Amino acid sequence: MALAETFRSRTGPAHRRVTEFGQAPAPEPGLSDLHAWVDAIATLTQPDRIHWVDGSAAENDALLRQMVDDGTLIKLNPEWRPGSYLARSHPGDVARTEGRTFIASERQEDAGPTNNWADPAEMRDTMTEIFAGSMRGRTMYVVPFSMGAVGGPLSHIGVQITDSPYAVASIGIMTRVGADVTRKIAEGEPWVKTVHSVGAPLEPGQEDVAWPCNDEKYIVHFPDTLEVWSYGSGYGGNAILAKKCFALRIASVIGRDEGWLAEHMLLIRVIDPEGNRYHIAAAFPSACGKTNLAMLRPTIPGWRVETLGDDIAWLRPGEDGRLWAINPEAGFFGVAPGTGESTNVTAVETLWGNTIFTNVALRPDGDVWWEGLTDDAPAHLTDWQGNPWTPDMDRPAAHPNSRFTVSAGQCPQIAPDWDAPEGVPLDAILFGGRRATNVPLVVEATDWTHGVFMGSNISSERTAAAEGTVGELRRDPFAMLPFCGYNMADYFGHWLSVGQKLRFDRAPRIFQVNWFRRGDDGRFLWPGFGDNVRVIEWIARRLRGTVGAVDTPIGRVPEISELNLDGVDVAQDDLEEIFAVDPETWKVEADLTEQFYATFDGRVPAPLQAELAALRYRLAEAARSSS
Ligand code: OXD
Ligand code: MN
């Protein structure tokens, strides 16, 4: 029985009518699959209305007005924040739900030990059951979107069905939405099907709440059929399915099959005083400063950074032997707390207007505030849950994961060609984490395989560990732990095979960075933020071949005297500590790597096991020569 019939037989026909906007496209032959799928989902979920989203400004305005009328959004004072809104989520729906995120691949081993696996047939039954009638009383929106410029060689398209107008407005900022995507579908371009419901049907006469959601949540990926089904949450990472679900989890599977990489990476262009340009992608786990690096304001005169992306990059080997990268997104969905004049003035300027804020605090003058925006908190606020707040209270005014959603084009230092369909050729890839100990400020890999070994070992400390001890680490290989749609060990192998497609003299060079190393007294040893350009400057000189490096057992580090430290005050002792490589603590790191690799039941590629053996050998040599 066809999917549509299965759904119909369980739920009966849906009642439908179109709204002022949102007319269905004409039923031409190329769109028959799309129409059939939309019919099937409507029959299953029983919405009151279907609205085909055209992506126009008038439609967006109407949607925002409707959400203000319904109490989902608070319009901010246009004097301070024109075209901007505040949403307050349900207190239990504030973040991605990794424990409820599933990879439903045919074979469990294809999901691997780092993902929650679900049997696809069973999960399909569960989805059919749980989505039955889930949109009753609501509008079902059909949102065609493109990741990357429509029609670009690295771009991919999809359609999201959702009953959340907040999700529709967010998708409108984060992706390219509109009729030209539907045209691509009509022309036969493959597309990914994504279905989202907040899981809160309305009975006739039942009043809606500001943030409908369900205690039961499912974020389900079917990698074999390239589908996503998300239920119960309105939070961006669970509801904007183009982002983590499609552009990382599903795209990583498409990339595995087609020979490219979908990565949790920012993308920047660095320009030196002579006008030389370097394209750099960098992977950091969440909350390790990706948006800050993406919007860096260099403290070395004459250096400039242009932002290309802050969260996701798709990397594809080009015919020229280089690795080409696009940012498939069209906006930033960033963490608000900690974003301020002294930490990321570019982000603050980006948020001047046309922004949807979620779970930040509201000022009495109708503007927003969050911890870190300014040094001092305003005397009176309404907190993210709508309660009165004053600075003496021992709870934050904004939720720690409160967010802004804003178009990339509003960033004052966005690269003029940030949405060029062909992307940019990468010169360097950085891997980073939050490491209080052991990991130097910057280490260069000796070659691609060594770089992949470094990426596979990225970890971030959950809490600051005391100097000298390794501490409790969360392994987050390539910063992709929650986002890789298939077996992570196969993903390591895929990185190796992508490297083989690059010309050895044109492949990006790989570096590990760590802005977060601390001294014995717990203080950060490196100033970070704009001064991170000093590390980038050394990397740029390495790329040009104008500076040497010091070999250590874990890779190549700068000669301290070669770092440009003009205008910054870092004590010589601190610099030495920032670059210290202690063979004893690195042996513990090697043991942790061995334990981690063992969780993949022999699936970790042999070249990475060889890198681990080589690291142990170099550490033993270093220990011998220092004793
Ligand atoms: C994340 C995000 O959780 O970008 O990594 O939202
Ligand atoms: Mn992210």
Describe this entry's structure for a reader.
With 627 residues, the protein is α/β, with parallel strands linked by helices. The protein has 3 domains: 3-73 and 96-259, Phosphoenolpyruvate Carboxykinase, domain 1; 263-330 and 420-626, Phosphoenolpyruvate Carboxykinase, domain 3, CATH 3.90.228; 332-408, Phosphoenolpyruvate Carboxykinase, domain 2. The chain has 17 helices and 32 strands. The strands form 8 sheets. Strands 1, 4, 5, 6, 7, 8, 9, 10 and 11 form a 9-stranded mixed β-sheet that branches. Strands 15-13-14-26-30-27 form a 6-stranded mixed β-sheet, with helices on both faces. Strand 16 (313-317) and strand 17 form a beta hairpin. Helix 3 (57-70) packs antiparallel against helix 6 (165-174), helix 12 (448-456) packs antiparallel against helix 13 and helix 12 (448-456) crosses helix 17. The model is unreliable at 1-19 and 463-471 (pLDDT under 50). Bound molecules: oxalic acid and manganese (II) ion. Residues 96, 237, 286, 311, 333 line the site of oxalic acid (OXD). Oxalic acid binds next to loops.
Q: What is the CATH architecture descriptor of the largest domain?
A: Alpha-Beta Complex
Number of domains: 3
Query: How much β-strand is present in the residues?
Result: 15-25%
Low-pLDDT residue intervals, each spanning 5 or more residues? 1-19, 463-471
What is the β-strand count?
A: 32
Oligomer: single chain
Mean pLDDT: 93
CATH topology of the largest domain: Phosphoenolpyruvate Carboxykinase, domain 3
Q: How many helical stretches?
A: 17
Structural classification? alpha/beta
Query: What is the distance, rounded to the nearest whole angstrom, between the alpha carbons of the first and last residues?
Result: 73 Å
Highest CATH level, the class of the largest domain? Alpha Beta
Mind summarizing the main beta sheet? 9 strands, mixed
Helix proportion range: 25-40%
